Amino acid sequence: MKHAFQFDADYYARYYKNARTRVSDRAEATRLARFVSGYLNYLGHPIRNIIDLGCGLGQLREPFLRAFPGATYLGVEWSDYACERYGFTKGSVVDFKHRSRFDLVLCRGVLQYLTPREAERALENLARLCRGCLYLEVLTREDWAQNADQKLTDGAVYLRPARFYRKRLAAHFQAAGGGIFVHQRSPAVLYALESL
Question: What is the domain extent for residue 41?
């Protein structure tokens, strides 16, 4: 798998390390982990293992391990820089394989960097790796136009409409809101008004 984008030290410095230009920080990662864990705990979904596909600098690792004590975490990253610097497993969301299925699959800010065909394959792979819940964040065409801070957000990506993702996710997942998708394999039950 070859990607056209460079996820090198300069990329991470701009979007994650520099306080003036970053799009995410530790405080946001902590809020996200609290939200996701709160909702999954409410659903009664046990989380024993977590995979973070496109983990970048690993900002989600500690907050999610605090939120789910006793769970294991596997960070998978395409960037040679991040793998060498932070010790993550080298791989792509498009075709990463593992012998286990995961209770929680995280994929944040990755799919917009993939071609349409790669994104379709990645969505199938996310479903294949998941036995519980998926947290998915991806920049859509609508977000770029209405929600994203265009001065901070990387806009040199593939902007697809949200329906592209919703249609493909619906084959395996039930949307629970807030970027959380419950897999068909999950024992969690979503009542009619909890599902989107």
Answer: 9-183
